[in-house]
Write a structure and sequence with these properties.
Helix content is 50%, strand content 12%. The chain has five helices and two strands. β1 (14-19) and β2 form a beta hairpin.
Length: 100
């Protein structure tokens, strides 16, 4: 049962998603599978928030090009994280090879 259902003491069996670009609504049935998946994903989100780790963006041209969060997400940036110490080590190794 959702918070809205509890608050209003009603059962909500479906909803709609409005897509702004196409200006169309899509019906979404609130079946037990969707409710279970939603609870599971909410729990995973809370775990991520507690851990303080930001998952890397995954670029998908079909989805990302129309997403309003693309300027904040920056999904096209390389996902491999490089530390400053690692960069410095690679530069020193490269310089030593040149001198040899």
């Amino acid at each position: 049962m959702s918070a809205l259902e509890e608050m209003l003491e009603v059962s909500i069996s479906a909803g709609q998603i409005f897509y702004g670009q196409t200006r169309r609504r899509t019906d979404v049935p609130f079946d037990e599978d969707l409710r279970s998946r939603t609870r599971s994903l909410a729990a995973r989100l809370h775990e991520l928030m507690r851990s303080g780790v930001t998952p890397p963006a995954i670029y998908d041209k079909r989805k990302c090009e129309r997403c309003s969060l693309k300027p904040d997400c920056l999904p096209e940036l390389p996902t491999k994280r490089q530390s400053a110490a690692g960069w410095l080590d690679r530069q020193l190794e490269s310089a030593l090879k040149v001198e040899s």
